[in-house]
């Protein structure tokens, strides 16, 4: 046993007790890192990857090394790591968005601390990089969730791609440690290509022997809501556990958390930008409540997908399919980290594949588009702001931000004071990028196919995942999943008391149409031209009522049942706001759809139906317009008011079948108000919510 190993064992026993022993592979990884080898540790969640880099840090610091740099993806994980490091007597600091007021004092202490934890985004901050340049004798860099370095695994945080550039700026003798639970052969080879073939890989078994997986057959959202609520209320195991429920969208997180709360289950939605009613970010407070046991269930997007460390989570339920099996392994791995028995239940429905394919499409970086954006930026000597670039392309803000981030992290462009410039020495190889994007897209679609195969698999679920990750596991089965046990752990009981309630809830997910206050050029809309807050019958096109509305819309005719349903819904709004006329938003593609509905609703409610808006040409469908400027222009170009006298001084219900961006409603209402309407109240059957 060499000196490094003896000291590592001594530190372990001093910290965790004389009976403590390293898990298989931990001591070898510590030795490799202290010997300054490039090292990749691939081990299942809960194996103790942080022990490796913190004990290595302690040994290196005792030998005179400077602080370790730890690149970590999640704020929650940073807090967990600081706590773990403290047990080893290490002084660790973090730079993140929640401690801005302390940045200067933390920067001043950089040379005194044992480790500095930062998010990958900080690597794009020149001020931070300058401060990092003042730190002496850095001898170790840790990249947590290292699979994100790879071209095949960086969708979660594109700034991970900058890590390679940072690593290349350090001397070769510095120790580099990557840790992950989810790197298959393809990802490992890609990391080797970027960091060097001398990379030492420590790879362990990935089958979790304490998490029982169950995959339900396809269910409606109503059935899934009822299933979860019943299980968390009556099941002898789940009713006593804390856990995480994963959804694909923010809107679904809100819906599931709300339904559980209505049924006395302590639950809260968690996602990027989650706020309280005062507009304050409450993400840290949510995690604290969950960590301390004050909150029983977190309903989350992938924001809680990597690295969150709470040891006693008893279950992970997926309300919808994850994006792929790698994401599934990460997410269900939040459960049972203390070794106790845990459940992972995968629910899914018909809409999931459509949503995942939209994510895959949005992740594509079309080389022709990248080249065009570089040309637009390059044509301006003074650089361009993001909104100035947006004017040239039919892209939504999120997509443009994603594309600009891609160009930025790959050093094709740089940024100064919110202005983008092309790097003078950049060379964008469109053909090479096209090949990369083609491979990435094919891989993502293949991963979706593998996910669908997993859902329909009739063997050991955990072994299927381990094989997908090219894990070295020799066990043929986990022995504890639903197939290995030959039974479902939780069934959708025929006497489930929540089915009718869930159906009623999903059918009454009514929404509010809030008015836009500014035009797409950011100029304020005159108060006299702003519509009043309006309503949507449903915010969920996949609810039972939403599906019915969408089916009838596709058939070009709303049924008498729908007329009655929506008429009854708007009755109180019509009476409360003294609405006198209904005006339909015209369509040349479905010319009778909305007008017939508006006319029938007017007859039911005993008010006037007025054809006050006319569309002069088809134009493009609004769904094909991807940013505010294009959407406003598209609506404005072909709409004008007729029959002015009939709407003058009247309170108008402005009716459309669907609403999403609100630009059609905004433009139509402003035209009606400009021509003398007293007030305009928009109403749509469905909020399609594609902006989510």
List the helices and strands and how they pair.
Elements: H1 3-16, H2 26-34, E1 39-42, H3 49-62, E2 68-71, H4 75-87, E3 92-95, H5 103-108, E4 115-118, H6 126-132, E5 140-144, H7 161-168, E6 175-180, H8 185-195, E7 200-203, E8 211-215, H9 221-234, E9 243-246, H10 250-262, E10 267-270, H11 283-291, E11 297-300, E12 315-318, H12 325-332, E13 342-346, H13 352-363, H14 367-378, H15 386-390, H16 397-409, E14 413-416, E15 419-422, H17 430-455, H18 461-468, H19 482-485, H20 499-507, E16 511-513, E17 534-538, H21 544-555, H22 560-576, E18 581-584, H23 593-605, E19 608-609, E20 613-615, H24 628-638, E21 639-641, H25 644-647, E22 651-659, H26 663-674, E23 679-687
Helix pairs in contact: 1-2, 2-3, 9-20, 13-17, 14-17, 22-23, 24-26
């Amino acid at each position: 046993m060499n000196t490094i190993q003896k000291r590592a064992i001594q530190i372990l026993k001093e910290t965790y007790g004389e009976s403590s022993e390293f898990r298989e592979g931990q001591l070898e990884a510590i030795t490799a890192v202290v010997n300054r080898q490039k090292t990749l540790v691939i081990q299942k969640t809960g194996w103790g990857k942080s022990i490796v880099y913190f004990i290595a840090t302690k040994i290196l610091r005792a030998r005179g090394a400077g602080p370790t740099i730890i690149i970590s993806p999640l704020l929650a994980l940073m807090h967990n790591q600081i706590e773990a490091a403290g047990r080893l007597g290490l002084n660790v600091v973090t730079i993140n968005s929640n401690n801005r007021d302390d940045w200067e004092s933390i920067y001043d202490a950089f040379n005194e601390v044992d480790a500095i934890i930062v998010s990958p985004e900080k690597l794009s901050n020149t001020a931070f990089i300058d401060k990092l340049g003042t730190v002496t004798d850095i001898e170790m860099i840790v990249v947590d969730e290292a699979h994100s370095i790879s071209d095949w695994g960086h969708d979660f945080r594109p700034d991970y791609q900058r890590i390679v550039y940072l690593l290349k700026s350090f001397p070769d003798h510095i120790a580099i440690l990557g840790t992950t639970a989810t790197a298959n052969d393809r990802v490992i080879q890609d990391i080797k290509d970027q960091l060097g073939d001398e990379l030492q890989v420590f790879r362990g078994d990935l089958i979790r022997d304490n998490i029982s997986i169950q995959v339900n057959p396809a269910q409606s959202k109503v059935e899934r809501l009822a299933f979860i609520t019943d299980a968390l209320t009556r099941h002898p195991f789940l009713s006593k556990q804390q856990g995480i429920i994963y959804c694909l969208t923010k809107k679904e997180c809100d819906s599931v958390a709300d339904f559980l709360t209505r049924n006395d289950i302590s639950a809260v939605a968690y996602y990027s930008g989650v706020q309280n009613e005062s507009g304050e970010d409450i993400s840290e407070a949510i995690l604290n409540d969950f960590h301390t046991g004050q909150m029983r269930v977190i309903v989350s997007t992938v924001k809680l997908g990597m690295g969150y460390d709470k040891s006693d989570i008893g279950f992970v339920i997926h309300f919808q399919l994850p994006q792929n099996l790698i994401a599934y392994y990460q997410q269900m791995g939040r459960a049972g980290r203390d070794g106790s028995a845990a459940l992972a239940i995968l629910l899914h429905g018909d809409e999931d594949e459509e949503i995942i394919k939209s994510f895959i499409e949005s992740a594509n970086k079309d080389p022709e588009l990248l080249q065009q954006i570089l040309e637009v930026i390059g044509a301006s000597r003074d650089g361009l702001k993001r909104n100035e670039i947006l004017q040239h392309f039919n892209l939504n803000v999120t997509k443009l931000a994603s594309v600009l981030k891609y160009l930025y992290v790959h050093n094709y462009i740089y940024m100064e004071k919110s202005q983008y410039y092309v790097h003078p020495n950049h060379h964008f190889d469109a053909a090479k990028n096209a090949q990369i994007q083609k491979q990435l897209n094919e891989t993502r679609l293949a991963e979706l196919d593998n996910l669908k195969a997993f859902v329909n698999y009739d063997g050991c679920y955990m072994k299927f995942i381990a094989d997908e990750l090219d894990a070295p596991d020799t066990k043929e089965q986990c022995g504890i999943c639903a197939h290995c046990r030959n039974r479902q752990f939780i069934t959708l009981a025929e006497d489930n008391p929540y089915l009718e309630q869930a159906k009623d809830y999903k059918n009454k997910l009514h929404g509010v149409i809030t008015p836009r206050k500014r035009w797409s050029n950011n100029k304020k809309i005159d108060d006299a031209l702003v519509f009043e807050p309006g309503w949507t019958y449903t915010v969920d096109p996949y609810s039972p009522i939403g599906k019915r509305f969408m089916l009838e819309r596709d058939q070009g005719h709303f049924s008498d049942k729908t007329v009655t349903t929506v008429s009854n819904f708007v009755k109180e709004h019509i009476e409360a706001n003294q609405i006198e006329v209904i005006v339909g938003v015209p369509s040349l593609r479905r010319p009778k759809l909305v007008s017939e509905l508006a006319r029938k609703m007017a007859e039911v409610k005993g008010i006037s139906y007025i054809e006050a808006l006319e569309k002069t040409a088809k134009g493009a469908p609004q769904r094909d317009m991807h940013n505010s400027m294009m959407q406003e222009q598209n609506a404005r170009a072909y709409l004008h008011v007729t029959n002015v006298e009939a709407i003058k001084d009247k309170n108008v219900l402005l009716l459309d079948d669907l609403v999403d961006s609100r630009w059609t409603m905004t433009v139509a209402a402003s035209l009606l108000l400009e021509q003398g309407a007293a007030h305009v109240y928009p109403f749509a059957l469905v909020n399609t919510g594609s902006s989510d």
